[in-house]
Amino acid sequence: MVTSFVHGAGPLIRKLERLIRLDDDERRALDQLPLRVATFDPGQEIVRQGDKPQQCVAVLEGFCSASKIVGDGGRQIVSFHIPGDIPDLQSLHVAEMDVSLTALTQTRILLIQHEDARRLCAQSLRITHAFWRETLIAGAIAKEWVVNIGQRDALTRVAHLFCETIARLDVVGLADDYRCHFPVTQEKLGEAMGLSTVHINRTLQELRGRGLISWERGVLEAHRWEDLQQVGDFDPGYLSLAPDWVVLR
Amino acid sequence: MVTSFVHGAGPLIRKLERLIRLDDDERRALDQLPLRVATFDPGQEIVRQGDKPQQCVAVLEGFCSASKIVGDGGRQIVSFHIPGDIPDLQSLHVAEMDVSLTALTQTRILLIQHEDARRLCAQSLRITHAFWRETLIAGAIAKEWVVNIGQRDALTRVAHLFCETIARLDVVGLADDYRCHFPVTQEKLGEAMGLSTVHINRTLQELRGRGLISWERGVLEAHRWEDLQQVGDFDPGYLSLAPDWVVLR
DNA sequence: CGGCCACTTGAAGAGCGTCAACAAAAGTGG
DNA sequence: CCACTTTTGTTGACGCTCTTCAAGTGGCCG
What we know:
Two copies of one chain form a homodimer.
Chain A lengths: L1 E6 L2 H10 L4 H8 L2 E7 L4 E3 L7 E7 L2 E6 L5 E7 L18 E4 L3 E7 H10 L1 H27 L2 H18 L7 E3 L4 H8 L3 H13 L3 E4 L2 E4 L2 H7 L18
Antiparallel strand pairs in A: 1-2, 2-8, 3-7, 4-8, 5-6, 5-7, 9-11, 10-11
Helix pairs in contact in A: 3-4, 5-7, 5-8, 6-7
Chain A binds a DNA duplex through helix 7.
């Protein structure tokens, strides 16, 4: 892990701007936050389950997953994180990490000391609420994952995840015409969906065979968005996409 | 739904005291909150998915579930709520409810107008953080449900839920010697666990047959807590039961 | 007593997991 | 640049967990 000091929380500000409108004071406070940037290679753990971190991380570039290990050695990915996400905001209030964060690609991460984040919250109630809202939306996504894994068959489940991913990436400008980078192996997709790698593979063949998606070398594309949404039983409401969100058609 | 006006947020204060240390000013502010109490019968919906409520609810007595409907008509329960919970705090920040709240038993509910909750947050940053922490723990529980449903077989899954339920009820003094009220039908348990009623029934027989639990007329008892924990692959860490009193100034 | 709801049981089969082998791609070192 | 290794993707066969359907039992309340 290589870190360097930087000033100016550009991407963080853009993220918050999607949650609330910032005034000049708030923007200045954010801009003066002492920040560090760290770079992680694919497969590296950014934070480990059980850690008691003294800082929060925000994803600047790259993709990560949050996962938990179960007794028999299995692993469940409970969320994917994309640029703009602050995956462990919870560590501000819950001492011990309940998940491990792992880089899926080369990833640039912003580190914010808890101390600084708390000072920022004390300075601006609105920023506090913006952070809180961020964690609430993460919770809404987790609930939808419970629904997805609990109720939907493999085909619907995977289609739903693809819709969710494209919709979230679109908001941060990382999906173009239902096409985005989704650098996940079939094994990891299985760990996220509660399915075996073999069954993921067959499910993907079905989705491809129906002409709904292509997914090669980490690039995912939905060919018929409406149909994919329908197959995936996907309604983006739970994502609470920012007010300037343009509804995908 | 019958409502009446009350003053004094006793149970709410007790709940917050578990999240954060309150000072006298804060206790006074809470005590002066204008509150209403509503009573719901079993099966009644308290808030409906898609609603845009102007108030939050806190459970005083009784049990509720939060559930989402999927396209094919199925239902997934994403959480159970017990006295002391504030199941829809999210509505303070996310306009539209992503779940329906349903009373499982006769339930007494405290209603807090958003307006009042917001004023309270503005008065005390520490109360804001306490509410935020409450939602973070709810998120941690949702993540564990993803793990439970995604990775564990029926027996482990149900055992895990029983452990979680007993552990949570114990904190609010509603479990005595691993014995508690758990007024849920097998059908609803199936909706929570992503399993059919038939398979829930057989799983319960297995748990009973192993002498791990009894569950009759809504009263759940763990006979060998340690063994049940082991069968359920249960580690209570994610519940953040021990208040680690994150220092907020 | 009758009706309803929750629980129970059996039988058959679907969906998905596991195992094992192989193919293709991507990384690695000379 | 090529040979090697490792990782990721693909396929077939088989079997287990869980679902579905259908029938039946037991308790509770009007």
